Amino acid sequence: MTVTVLIADDQAVVRAGLAMLVDSQPDLAVVGQAHDGRGAVRLAAELVPDVVLMDIRMPLMDGLEATRRIRTAGTGSASQVVVLTTYDLDEYVFDALRAGARGFLLKHAPPEELLHGIRVAARGGALLSPSVTIRLIEAFAAGRARPARPPAALARLTPREREVFDLVVAGRSNTEIGRMLGIAETTVKTHLGHVTEKLGLRDRVHAVIFAYEHALVPPSPP
């Protein structure tokens, strides 16, 4: 099956580069391009792409609002949104994840990482990289008020589920978690499903957000 992709970025050269990269893959195809958030929302509804690569800072409507509308309105909600950002970051990325984005990719990431991210999002997965995502989420969560006590919902987790939760927050993949705990990857997925259900979370990216919002992760050293 071919994964269809909509690219939303206000820079023509960025759109062209991304389109060339995506179309070079036999299993991926660009079906549309938008130069602002409003156009991204319109094309997402018309084309219903599997994945929308969404820039944050665009005219008429920013990527945050566009993401929220795509994920909550009509047929466009079937599209998975992946936020594109630069390393020094837009302050909106944290909120974009909460608005429904599956994660984010750095514009200058290696081509194979960008392509992998598209495929992961198309499968309904969340983009969680210990070298990028956790550090960026921490940067935003650090500026938000944190509760003094852990949320009561954590008490609903079994010891094994808490171990899986902690390793997910640390950026470990299901394969790595299975190896570290000595359990099958399918068992890891089952435990993770129980964790997200008990904590009311959407996916592993939001498990990381939850952990940083509730001060469950010690701050990184300067």
TrEMBL record:
Residues 150-215 form the HTH luxR-type domain. The modification 4-aspartylphosphate is found at D55. The keyword Cell membrane does not apply. It comes from the Bacteria. InterPro entries: CheY-like_superfamily, NreC/VraR/RcsB-like_REC, Sig_transdc_resp-reg_C-effctor, Sig_transdc_resp-reg_receiver, Tscrpt_reg_LuxR_C, WalR-like. Pfam families: GerE, Response_reg. Keywords: DNA-binding, Phosphoprotein, Transcription, Transcription regulation. Coiled coil: none annotated. The keyword Calcium does not apply. SMART domains: HTH_LUXR, REC. Residues 4-122 form the Response regulatory domain. This is Response regulator transcription factor.
